[in-house]
């Protein structure tokens, strides 16, 4: 198995735009993250990249279960097995979305890229996806991202 990123690659830890800021997702985001996706389940499920209907869970999840997910994503980031970023409102530091960069099973792509924003921030969906695409091209090592039609 090949490495997801080259051994000498230093993963970017931020992307800053006028309407949002990305930083690595971690346990410190638990309450705001749970509120963000919990308020937007139908919207997220209709977002490109979430076709299997498994996430987010229709019934939500407990704070403890969400904390477990965030802890796993943070561990993946540190182990360089996947990179999950929380999308924050730059004015309030509230979680307004998430970006996932993980290995893909596809032989046609080298990274699976998924993102979502809260339903009340739906106007940021395309600008976020476009900013992430430009960021991947400029600062990340992959050449064939799977952007799920974006």
Q: What's the gist of this structure?
A:
This protein is an alpha+beta fold and 150 residues long. The longest helix is centred in the middle third of the chain and has 17 residues. The protein starts with 14 loop residues before the first strand and ends with a strand.
Kindly describe this structure:
- Keywords: Transferase.
- One of its GO terms (molecular function) is transferase activity.
- This is N-acetyltransferase.
- By secondary structure, this protein is α+β, with helices and mostly antiparallel strands.
- The chain has one domain (15-146): 3-Layer(aba) Sandwich (Aminopeptidase).
- The protein has helices at 30-38, 41-45, 63-79, 125-139; strands at 15-16, 21-24, 83-88, 95-102, 111-117, 145-146.
- It has a six-stranded mixed sheet with strand order 1-2-3-4-5-6, sandwiched between helices.
- A hairpin with an 8-residue loop joins strand 4 and strand 5.
- Helix 1 (30-38) crosses helix 3.
- The longest helix is centred in the middle third of the chain and has 17 residues, at 63-79.
- The mean pLDDT is 94.
CATH structural architecture:
3-Layer(aba) Sandwich
Cα-atom Rg, whole angstroms? 15 Å
Which CATH C-level class is it?
Alpha Beta
Strand content: 15-25%
> Per CATH, what is the topology?
Aminopeptidase
Shape: globular
Q: Report on the biggest sheet.
A: 6 strands, mixed
Protein name: N-acetyltransferase
Keywords: Transferase
GO molecular function: transferase activity
Organism: Nocardioides zhouii
């Amino acid at each position: 198995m090949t490495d997801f990123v080259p051994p000498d690659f230093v993963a970017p830890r931020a992307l800053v735009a006028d309407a949002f800021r990305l930083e690595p997702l971690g346990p410190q985001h638990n309450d705001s993250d749970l509120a963000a996706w919990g308020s937007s389940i139908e919207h997220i499920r209709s977002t490109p990249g979430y076709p299997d209907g498994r996430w987010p869970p229709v019934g939500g999840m407990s704070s403890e279960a969400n904390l477990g997910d965030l802890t796993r994503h943070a561990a993946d980031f540190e182990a360089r097995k996947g990179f999950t970023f929380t999308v924050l409102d730059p004015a309030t530091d509230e979680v307004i979305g998430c970006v996932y960069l993980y290995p893909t099973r596809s032989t046609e792509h080298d990274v699976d890229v998924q993102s979502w924003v809260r339903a009340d921030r739906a106007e940021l969906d395309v600008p976020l996806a476009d900013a992430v695409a430009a960021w991947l091209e400029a600062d990340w090592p992959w050449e064939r991202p799977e952007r799920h039609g974006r």
